[in-house]
Amino acid sequence: MFENVGGKIKAVALAFFWLGCIGGALGGLVTAAEVDGFEGLLSFVIITAISVFLSWLSSLLLYGFGELIESSSFTASEMEKLNEKTKSAPPPSVQTSSAPVSHFYSASEKNVKVCKNCGAKNDKSSSKCRLCDASL
Length: 136
Fold this sequence. Notes:
2 helices, 2 strands, single chain, mainly alpha
């Protein structure tokens, strides 16, 4: 019952559109039969045009809602597939670089205090490490 809800809503939207068009044309014919001459033809055209437009507008909104549900369902299924792939995939290897990290230096540099806890470079006037908050 709840399988392919978006497709079912879109099918109902198309059915409403065609029923509205047919009903509008029949209403226009009934009105044209009651009125003679050019006025009858004009009333048929106006009633049919208005009913087709209103049927199109209402079914467009309903069809769009069905499309939104289909897209959401597709996105959810793709996310589940992606989650399954990431759960079963091995963790990525850690790449290490030989270049020094910008805030880790030796104590031989001028105006720098190096934290004994984490090795981060700090200003010489600092009393606590800016990264790990340890006393310098």
